[in-house]
Amino acid sequence: MQGMGSLRLGSRAVMYTAETLPKGKNRVMGTIQIMTGFMHIGFGIVLTTLTNVYTSVFVIGEIPFLGGVSFIISGCLSIGAEKSPTECAVKGSQTMNVISAIFALLGIVAFIVDLNLNGLYRSSFDYYSYLILLAGNGISIVLLIFTILEFCIAVATANFWCRATRLSSNEAMLIVPSTTQVDLAVPLADLPQPPSYAELAAPEV
Known about the structure:
By secondary structure, the protein is mainly α. It is built from six helices and two strands. Strands 1-2 form a two-stranded antiparallel ribbon. Helix 1 (25-49) packs antiparallel against helix 5 (127-164) and helix 4 (87-117) runs antiparallel to helix 5 (127-164).
């Protein structure tokens, strides 16, 4: 339009406003994910020492170590994405939470199989072997509960970032002004000129 400057929408320097982000929620869920990851690694090492008596598909598939590392990375990225919600941090957190949800789902299936395989008492076991069997089942039940919790957190976090990355009215855009071009319809010669300094300095008669 004539007589109007033009504005250009630049790249998304900051993706989300404060109203879009849940205050403190991602930090809490990220902390739980990190704790769950360390629990998987720690109890996974314990279950590895019991494999001579306790048959564990969970350990054979190396889910406690791969899943534990995935949970820890997901938690760290979730906390980092809340502190600095850049596009790279958000996409990384979303991707890792999807991977963590897959590992958690595999872990839930593996724990159910483990409990079915080791749930029956065998007459060939002595008392020591029976205690190992009970310990393995106890660890599997505890890890199963935390794995279900991890699955819910990973799905909820990934779903939140998926909704947050959609274009919405709350998205903050960087506005960069371009060179203003003014094209006035009135010629400059027809415009009234300001008084000169000599006219202002001349004394009134």
